[in-house]
Design a protein that fits this description.
1 helix; 83 residues; DUF1214 domain-containing protein
Amino acid sequence: MYDPQGFLVENPIERYEIGHTAEPIANPDGSVDLFVQHEPPAGSRSNWLPAPAGDFNLILRMYWPQQSAIDGTWKPPAVGRAS
């Protein structure tokens, strides 16, 4: 997560990504919910990426992606608002 100027977003838990250093917890069905929001989510914070109150840029980095990600047959899930 980066601010509009391209810098990492400072946050109270000093978490700047979810992945290899902050392993998310999967749901019982194997899916993963990530919470990208300013305020901490209710319950566990393990899948929380603190966001600033204002604008930010969310970037998906893929190292050694599979061919389906390269050729566009795989697409990442959409980012949406929780209901």
